[in-house]
Amino acid sequence: MTDSRSGHPHRAGPYFTVDLHLHTNRGSSDSNLAPKDLVDRARAIGIGAVCITEHDNMWDSREIAALAAGSGVIFMRGMEVTTDMGHVGAFGLERYVGGIYKLAELRRVVNLEGGILIANHPFRYKLDPRFSFINPDSEPIDPTYPDRAAKLEIFEMVDAIEVLNGACGEDENLFALKVARRLGLAEVAGSDSHSAGSVGCVTTLLDGPIKDERELIAAIQSRRCRAGRGLLKSALAPFELSANAG
User: What's the pTM?
Assistant: First the structure.
């Protein structure tokens, strides 16, 4: 698919689509997604770009370039860092750095590199008391009070919130969107895919094409992004609160 106005491939209507969060079996032990299968899938669904965000490690830039060669899809690197405040997507780093499991240190290091941080699936398992044992503080969040959740310390240290995660429940995603709206933080989406079938099930929608990680960072920093879904059904639409969602 080619946008007749820009001549850029893979532009879905007014948006350039990016899957901002996925894992391969090359760098994440819990993933079944082989890099070659990711390339084939990305090409097949007509997505603009995908970001490989392995757990606590990063691909080498030369390996990413080799993977993307001839695919017609932009491949970028990020990392999902396991921090003391939850999983955080980091963009702009070259490698894992000792000590960044503490979010304050991760913020410091990313600032030095001109990067960004994203709170990934911040409310997964946290709205249902039945799953409170999974949470570090064993304390579920009351879903009727997004203003309270917006005061969590993690949101003081990130540039964006993953308000739409392909592996989260609708209630968790909608709550994340409410919190992002209250805070005025950038809203992004990622499939959190660990297998080929879910790549691109949700996407970050940019208002124009990008060609590399630096342009992605700039687009999110300037909030020229939103979360969306429907790419796989050729019915792409932004993720919004329903009329009665509050």
Answer: 0.91
